[in-house]
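Before the break, one more example. Copy the sequence into your notebook; we will annotate it together after we see the structure.
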Amino acid sequence: MLNNKAFWNILKSIVILGWILLFMLASIGSGAFVLVARIAILVLILIHLSELTVSLPIGRENNLTTRRIVINTLVFGFTWWTPLRRGVIDE
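Here is what the structure looks like once it is written out:
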C-alpha cells in the first residue's frame, strides 16, 4: 500500500479537502468554530514548516527547486515527501 501511487494521491486529496474545510470554517463560521479552525490552520502550518528539515534534502536529491519543495511541503506535508523519498512518485 505504501508503494502505491494511488494511495498517496488519495491522501493528498484528503489533505486538500481538509485545508478547504478549515479555511471555510475560519471565514464563514461563527464563534468557537472560527477560533478552532484558525488555531488548527496555525498548528498545521507550524507542523508542515517543521517538516522542511526532512523534505528539503529529499527534494534536493530529486533535483527540485527550493520553492517547489517548500510549497509542496506546506500544502501536503508528509503525503508529498514520503512517496517522493520512497520513489513512488517522481516530480
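The chain has a mean pLDDT of 94. Helices lie at 5-28, 32-50, 52-61, 66-76, 78-86. Try to locate both features in your own notes.
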